[in-house]
């Protein structure tokens, strides 16, 4: 084949590869690359990068790694564009360790990264909760004579928010202003989310107002994070006022919105409002999820409405949903707050029969219920269960155990302390009736 023929064939192949990329036909792209090798048509970096990018759209990370290894073996050498495409695939497939390995390999090859690649690596740090690495990458822009863009700032802020480091997130937002990069709605939402994680509701509100001052329109995500921040800050009336504002702006409430509002009403011991919000949401034909149900049970618990909490638990089961450990723990806590230790036992037993393993959130309210009711025999039998399963006691549980023993010592006139296992709660059971150990 002549040099001109090879050139013409390579151009045709590149056109075909771009067509396969647009149509997300990754298998055809890989087949063409193999055919080129068979026909001894030398591929350049652009050809390989196109195939890797096509594999990225289909999340075929393993095949992309094979193509990358072929480049290292047969040539040409991977470029910065190759690394960017490969890191993007790893981010999409939640393989952040592989993305960081690519970043290290890039440095070993002494290649100069670009903003797109660094942004992808910062996103990988976000997925892996490696917020310090994300900040380090962000800080390195100046030394590499690169300019961060909106994506850089958004990804770094999100990484900090995920790790609950709101001061660092707001610091990155402030840096965007100093570098004259106008914050967009994504950046503001990520910053409000960081304030939510840190229960910094006044800062979340200030950022929401700043969005409006910059001629941006807050969306549902903006309000959801602000409402959640108010809930964490025990500002339930503020949460409701932002919900009203959200409705005036014709924004539709989501499950996240409703769950945060119900939780806020619960913290404010406004259980009637929590129930009303739940029923209004359901009346719109929208299906509550397990998180909403769990939050409603907790709200009823704050209002000492144990019977209502148990009716919500029954409703969950009646609708064919499977209560998780959080739902059961909330129901046990509701019974404990109302000093209904027998009902707490029944919920605990129901949880065991469902096959769920009790957690600290199960044992603490149950032990507290026994202590409040002076049921030291049950309390001690539960201690036996904890000891048998090797369960580590946290400080709150240790205090309850000490109280139980003190009650036992004061009431042990018949020597019952020597046999504290006279209780239906000797050990958690699975659905087949066998004992379950953690």
Task: Report the span from N to C terminus.
Answer: 70 Å
- How many beta-strand runs? 0
- Structural class, by secondary structure, is mainly alpha
Mean pLDDT: 83
Q: What can you see in these coordinates?
A:
There is one protein chain. The protein has 438 residues and is mainly α. Helices cover 70% and strands 0% of the residues. The chain has 23 helices and no strands. It has helices spanning 3-22, 26-38, 45-57, 61-74, 80-92, 96-108, 115-127, 131-139, 150-162, 166-178, 185-197, 201-213, 220-232, 236-248, 255-267, 271-283, 290-302, 306-318, 325-337, 341-353, 360-372, 376-388, 395-411. Helix 11 (185-197) runs parallel beside helix 13 (220-232), helix 13 runs antiparallel to helix 14 and helix 18 (306-318) packs antiparallel against helix 19. The protein is elongated. The model is unreliable at 1-8, 416-431 and 433-438 (pLDDT under 50).
Could you give the topology of this structure?
Layout: H1 3-22, H2 26-38, H3 45-57, H4 61-74, H5 80-92, H6 96-108, H7 115-127, H8 131-139, H9 150-162, H10 166-178, H11 185-197, H12 201-213, H13 220-232, H14 236-248, H15 255-267, H16 271-283, H17 290-302, H18 306-318, H19 325-337, H20 341-353, H21 360-372, H22 376-388, H23 395-411
Q: Short summary of the structure?
A:
The protein has about 450 residues and is mostly helical. It has helices spanning about 5-20, 25-40, 45-55, 60-75, 80-90, 95-110, 115-125, 130-140, 150-160, 165-180, 185-195, 200-215, 220-230, 235-250, 255-265, 270-285, 290-300, 305-320, 325-335, 340-355, 360-370, 375-390, 395-410.
């Amino acid at each position: 084949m002549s040099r001109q023929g090879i050139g013409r064939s390579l151009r045709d192949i590149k056109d075909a590869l771009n067509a396969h990329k647009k149509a997300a036909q990754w298998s055809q792209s890989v087949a063409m690359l193999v055919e080129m090798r068979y026909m001894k048509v030398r591929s350049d970096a652009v050809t390989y990068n196109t195939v890797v990018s096509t594999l990225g759209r289909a999340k075929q990370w393993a095949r992309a790694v094979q193509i990358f290894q072929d480049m290292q073996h047969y040539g040409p050498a991977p470029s910065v564009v190759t690394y960017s495409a490969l890191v993007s695939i790893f981010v999409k497939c939640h393989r952040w360790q592989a993305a960081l390995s690519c970043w290290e390999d890039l440095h070993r090859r002494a290649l100069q990264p670009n903003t797109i690649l660094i942004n992808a690596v910062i996103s990988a740090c976000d997925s892996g909760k490696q917020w310090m690495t994300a900040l380090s990458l962000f800080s390195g822009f100046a030394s590499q004579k690169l300019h961060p863009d909106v994506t850089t700032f958004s990804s770094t802020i999100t990484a900090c928010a995920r790790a609950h480091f709101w001061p660092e997130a707001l610091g990155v937002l402030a840096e965007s202003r100093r570098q004259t990069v106008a914050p967009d709605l994504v950046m503001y939402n990520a910053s409000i989310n960081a304030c939510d994680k840190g229960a910094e509701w006044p800062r979340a509100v200030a950022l929401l107002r700043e969005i409006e001052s910059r001629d941006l329109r807050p969306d549902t995500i903006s309000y959801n994070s602000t409402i959640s921040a108010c809930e964490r800050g025990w500002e339930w009336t503020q949460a409701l006022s932002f919900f009203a504002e959200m409705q005036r702006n014709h924004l539709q409430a989501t499950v996240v919105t409703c769950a945060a509002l119900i939780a806020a009403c619960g913290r404010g011991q406004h259980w009637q409002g929590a129930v009303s919000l739940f029923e209004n949401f359901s009346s719109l034909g929208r299906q509550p999820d397990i998180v909403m149900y769990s939050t409603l049970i907790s709200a009823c618990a704050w209002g000492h409405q144990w019977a209502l909490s148990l009716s919500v638990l029954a409703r969950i089961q009646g609708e064919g949903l499977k209560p998780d450990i959080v739902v059961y723990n909330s129901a046990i806590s509701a019974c404990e707050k109302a000093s209904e230790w027998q009902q707490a036992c029944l919920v605990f037993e129901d949880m065991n029969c469902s096959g769920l393993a009790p957690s600290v959130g199960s044992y603490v309210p149950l032990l507290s219920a026994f202590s409040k009711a002076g049921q030291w025999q049950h309390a001690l039998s539960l201690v036996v269960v904890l000891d048998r399963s090797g369960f580590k006691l946290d400080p709150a549980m240790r205090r309850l155990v000490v109280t139980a023993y003190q009650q036992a010592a004061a009431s042990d006139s018949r020597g019952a302390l020597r046999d504290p296992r006279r209780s239906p709660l000797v050990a958690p059971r699975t659905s087949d009736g066998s004992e379950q150990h953690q």
